[in-house]
Every structure is written in C-alpha cells, then in structure tokens.
Amino acid sequence: MACYLYSAVRTPFGRFNGALSDVRPDDLSARVITGLLDRVPELDPAAIDEVVWGNANGAGEDNRNVGRMAALLAGLPTSVPGTTVNRLCGSSLDAAMIGSRAIETGDADIVLAGGVESMTRAPWVLPKPSRGFPPGDLTAVSTTLGWRLVNPRMPKEWTVSLGEANEQLREKHAVTRERQDAFALRSHRLATAAWAEGFYDNLAVPAGGLARDEGVRSDSSPEQLAALKPSFRPDGTITAGNASPLSDGASALLLGSPAAADRLGIEPLARIAGRGASALDPQEFGYAPVEAAERALARAGIGWDQVGAVELNEAFAVQSLVCVDAWGIDPEIVNTRGGAIAIGHPLGASGGRVLGTLAGVLRERRERWGVAAICIGVGQGLAVVLENLAVAA
Q1: 178/118 Cα distance (integer angstroms)
Q2: Catalytic pick among 89, 173, 188, 323
Q3: Which fold has domain 4-121+245-387?
Q4: Is 3 a catalytic residue?
Q5: In CA terms, which of 6, 144, 237, 330 is 20 to 30 Å from 136?
C-alpha cells in the first residue's frame, strides 16, 4: 500500500532566546498540531491511528514522551496513541519514515508525524553521584546541543564537537571559507524572497506571537560574513554566519493511505516513494546524507537525473557543500527557498520542515521527484524521496 503526504505545517523558527523562548516545547507541539488539524476540518481526530513525534533533547519540559503530551494538549482524544522518536537532528524525518511504514504495511490509515525542539529552554543537568553528599564539586551540563556526560569508553575522535567535526570535513574535502560564506548568503537571500513572495504562507502557522522565521537576515552581505571570526579553531573557516543557529520550533505532517483521502476531505500532496538511512564514523556525520539519499533513490527506483528538487538541511555550509558535490547535482535545485542557515535548525523539528518544504517546492516548480535529506550527530543520515502526484498524474 502507498503512503501519501496530505499536509505539512510548521511554526516559524525562533532564535535562541528569541520570540519563542517563553513557549514550552510541548505547547509548541500542540500549536502546530492544532494548526495542521485546522486545515483538515473534515477529519475526525479520533480517526488518527498514531502520533509519532521527533525530539532530540527530552531532558526538560519535553520529557515523558512529548509526542503523547502534545497530542493531549492539542485536544486529541485520549484514545489516540502517541510516541516520541529520538534520532537527534533527524528525529522528525524519522517520525515520518516510521509513520509511512505503518501505513504501507496496513498497520495504520492516518498518522500524524512531526517534531519539536526548544533549544532555548533545554535545561542544564547534573550527573547523579554514585553516593550521597559527594565531597567535591558537581558541574551543571547544558543539554542544548552536542555531546554531554560522555562515556569515557568512547574514542576521543568520535566525540569532538560538531564544529570541529565539520572543520575536519572541510579539510578532507578542501572546501574554502569563501564557498561556505557564499552558500550561507544564498540561504538568507532565498529565504527572504520565499517569505516576501508568500511561499511559506501555507506552510507556517504563527506561534508565540511569531509570524515569520526570526533568523532570516535580509541584509546579510559578503562583507558581514567575511568579517566573522572562526568559531571552533583560531585558523578555522566555520563561523556563526555559515552554520545553522540554535533555534526553537515545531513541525507537523499528516500522512495517510490512498483511502484516507475520503476521511480527510483533501487530496494528497505527494507520495513517499523511497526511504534511506546510513551511518559512518561519528565525526563524519556531515557526510552521512550522501549514502542515505542514494539508498532512498534506489528504493524509489529512480536516479539523480530524474530529481528536480532537493531539500538538504543546512547544519553547516561545509557539510551541505560536500554532500551536493558528492551527488554531482546542479546546486541550483538545492534549497531553492532557503535553508537552515537562514531559517534555523530546531533539532527535532527540522526533518518535518525539509519534507514539507520539499512537497511545496515540487508543486511550485512542477517537478515530479524530490529528495529530502538530513545529517545527524553521531554519524548518521536520513533521506526520503517524494513523488509529486500532480505531475505523476
């Protein structure tokens, strides 16, 4: 059985300590769920077979299965089950993949998938001492991003910072600072144009008083980007300008079988045509989408020559560039409406964003096939192939 994507929405993504900083992640999730359901008024919420929600943190207000909490806060019947998926940056794309498999196997007819992250509200945590009243100091550890409370058995080369890992990737693939800054500038300009032209009007639902992505800089310039200091090495090339920012936000996707169209009262946007996951050494995580996309394409039965649009989450400009180079595709079909460097990267929500954006871009450009891909910390990548049904028909 086929699985279709019927609808996709997200909140605007907020800056760290920005407009969404006072909004709990479970409330952000509930907001995007209600925003999605508002678009399908014919759907009886009790007909949703499962809520599958992505979240990378889970250490604070997003604890205790935030997917279930969000469903309850959104007013879904208590009979609708919910689960939370953690594949770090790929969590909501993984949620969509899990939901699509359930539909294809006949285990579900309608699945609400998505994800959330409030990187602002991620708490500090203390390691629990092995015995009460330790004589020494304890250090609070931030759960906002990256490795923490690392198992000493992990090889040191695996647990370098995300930025250092991408500096290593930059060295390996000889990607210049100039290319990275140019890629970042393009992201801001395309995102600015997308909002100005109304592309995101149907993909975003206001939350916390925020109506547009807070991190998009319409006035970004080559000179401003070139003036920024390296963030991870004194002689490095990765800066705050050519990497994605810490962000807050949520995304939601409505998946269903072909028969679900009658219950939803809307036609599907696209078919989930292929899925792929890959893994490699943890410090090489930025390159992992390369193989994930190849596997998704193989399962869809198509090649890169048939792909008309790519949405690749821009965790760092350098990892995005090496993936595009490895695929050998036209860079102009990638992130044509801006990417995470401009829009933001709330970890658990980004996969849902790229998949929903891809469906919109395929419709806008009248392309049949598209790829959504994302790199994931600790050496993983995910990808999904969408088929635009309007063109396929």
Answers
A1: 31
A2: 89
A3: Peroxisomal Thiolase; Chain A, domain 1 (3.40.47)
A4: no
A5: 144
**In contact, 83 and 95? CB cutoff 8 Å:** no
Q: Is 268 left (phi over 0), alpha (psi -120 to 50) or beta?
A: beta
Give tens-digit pLDDT for 118-160. 999 999 999 888 888 888 888 899 999 999 999 999 999 999 9
pLDDT for res 315: 98
**Catalytic site includes residue 89:** yes
| 8 A C-beta contact, residue 361 and residue 348 | no
* pTM (global) more than 0.85: yes
pLDDT of 245: 97
- Where in the chain are the domains? 4-121+245-387
Enumerate residue ranges in the chain where pLDDT < 50: none
| pLDDT, position 305 | 98
323 labelled catalytic: no
Catalytic residue among 3, 188, 323, 345: 345
In the set 3, 188, 323, 375, the catalytic residue is 375
Do residues 218 and 318 lie in contact, with contact meaning Cβ atoms separated by under 8 Å? Answer: no
CA distances from 343 to 133, 168, 339, 349 (A): 45, 25, 6, 12
